[in-house]
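Example record used in the benchmark description.
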Amino acid sequence: MNIPIDNYNLFTTLQSSDLLKVKEPILFIHGFAGSSDDWLQIFPQINKHYLPFAIDLIGHGKSSSPSDISYYTHDAIANHLKSIFDFYNITEPIICGYSMGGRAAISFAMKYPQNVKALILESSSPGIINSSERDLRYRNDLSLAENIQLKGLEFFDEYWSNLPIFDSQKYLSADQLAQIKTKRLNNNITGLCNSLRGFSVGVMPNFWNRLPKIEVPVLLISGEYDNKYTEINRIMSGLIKNSESKIIDSCGHNTHLEKPMEFVSLVNLFLDKTIKV
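Model output (structure tokens):
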């Protein structure tokens, strides 16, 4: 299902469409409970030949948070992205997605393979292979959505910040932690809950067997402490012919937050090697 693009918030330099004539566009997509603001420290460091922009996914940031769950499915999100690209006449974007944003990027690439120039996937997954594990994850996400509705965003912030996958973020500065908390508390409850219900990795298709069909260059990034996604990336890199997997030292799931300069360095190197500008 499509949604008008004016329901989407874009943090973007696309206001000057003339830049698209001389620069390669690269879309950055945030993770669950994040927003386009998450990339602000990254953009100034991106190679000057590229035009970075970001969106708030449906249910996040300043984008709409409809009550209809059909707007949040992997297929709907892929269509939303296509509508945005079409509006700006972007035919082959580079897409960089973190965690849930990476799953959005994969979903788009699977549906519109001819409309992707390259993928950068940070701590993400192409789905869950085992059906019982997939069902369990979906039940857990439905339970979390119910708890968020019953207990509110303070509960969610406490729960989310204490997940083991984010342990390494506890060493961030007090100011950074305060900013993260403020952003989480600014989320829309309907948007978060429907994202869990509609775009849970437990309900997303299993795209593992389609990875060998990806023809474009792919960069896979994970953090040293994130064993789960480092292993996922290792397996993915063996299935995607034109891919490379990189591990950033001394950080966890959100590498661009914990080690922004190292993250940008990997992205720029990948772009320099694989994209002709």
